[in-house]
Amino acid sequence: MEQANLVIIGAGPAGIATAVEAKEVGIENVILLEKKGHICDTVVSLYHEGKRVDPVYRKVKVEPLGKLSFETECREEFLERMKKVVEDHKLDIRYWNEAQKIKILEDSFIVQTGGELEVKAPIVVVAIGVFGKPVKPSYPIPKEIKNKVFFALPKEPLKGKKILVVGGGDTAAETACFLSNDNSVDLSYRREKFFRINPTNMCSLEGCCDAGKINLLMGTDIEGLEGKGDRILVHFKDGKGQEYDAVFYCLGGMTPRTFLEGVGVEFEGNKPKIDEYGETNIPRLFLVGDLALLKGSIMAAFNTGKKTIDGIVKKYKDVVGLTT
Ligand SMILES: Cc1cc2nc3c(=O)[nH]c(=O)nc-3n(C[C@H](O)[C@H](O)[C@H](O)COP(=O)(O)OP(=O)(O)OC[C@H]3O[C@@H](n4cnc5c(N)ncnc54)[C@H](O)[C@@H]3O)c2cc1C
Fold first, then answer.
1. pLDDT-based confidence at residue 198 (cuts at 50, 70, 90)
2. Which of 27, 104, 131, 227 reaches 20 to 30 Å from 245, CA-CA?
3. Which CATH number fits domain 2-133+253-316: 3.10.150.10, 3.50.50.60, 3.40.50.2000, 1.10.150.130?
């Protein structure tokens, strides 16, 4: 078993920012566990190629509080930036190590991974985000059409298809615009008006609609899906039906409640109970990033890393080996 002063679970924006802020204040022996073979899996797996990464997300402008910040840039530039942060700060990331269990001992934790690795540390910061678990619709998705229903963009690009995108936020707008380059796209949203889409995405969406590439289905709700030949028949609640080659759901992510409750973290409604530093009801167990935020974004995730390290320095200086 390895020993660390601090274990961070997840090497996304929040986990990396937490490790950087920890180094800045002099905390040594910080281990990051990452379940994939790369950093920032949400950006790698869910952002489409060339996607604009905006610091203003969900219409919220967040000013940077700590060391990490960025301006609008594309997905690939953002990932390069983050790789450089990891290299410059010599972060100790253990790839392909999915944290599966956190055991609570009297004065420390043992984090067990799917592989051989176990790490013992007095403080654990959980930075696993919410996008590992996409929100799914309430109706069932029949088995025979599962390969045509998506919660993220597939590796193989779709071309010449009739596609339905479902959702009303920035991701739905960006996905619809991206897919409309090579496909015919309908965008279904259950409200009559969009209110969560940022001005840049709204402008792109309007451009695609004006060019006849996207057809908006406002105020539409889906009752269910059915296989029809090699297509999907979408039943809308107003009784209408429409056939598509593929359906994309962009409904956001879900807090990994089972994992957190399994550790003993208490919830208030849908959100875990935390204090201003991200500390849960379990002393020395912190949450950062999307897990700790009502409206998650990259800049807000960076800031939670800074706040959590401020809290650790304030309350647990000795525990993490800081003497001054
Ligand atoms: C399509 C899309 C577009 C977006 N566009 C923007 C944008 O333009 N601007 C913006 O600010 N925000 C955007 N967001 C939101 C932004 O991506 C999130 O707010 C941000 O990634 C949250 O960071 P995080 O570190 O909390 O979690 P994540 O980025 O989700 O990182 C979590 C990391 O933890 C790892 N992990 C998960 N479980 C485990 C485990 N058990 N053990 C070890 N590792 C684990 C994952 O592999 C991942 O690397 C977008 C989101 C999506 C889905």
1. confident
2. 131
3. 3.50.50.60
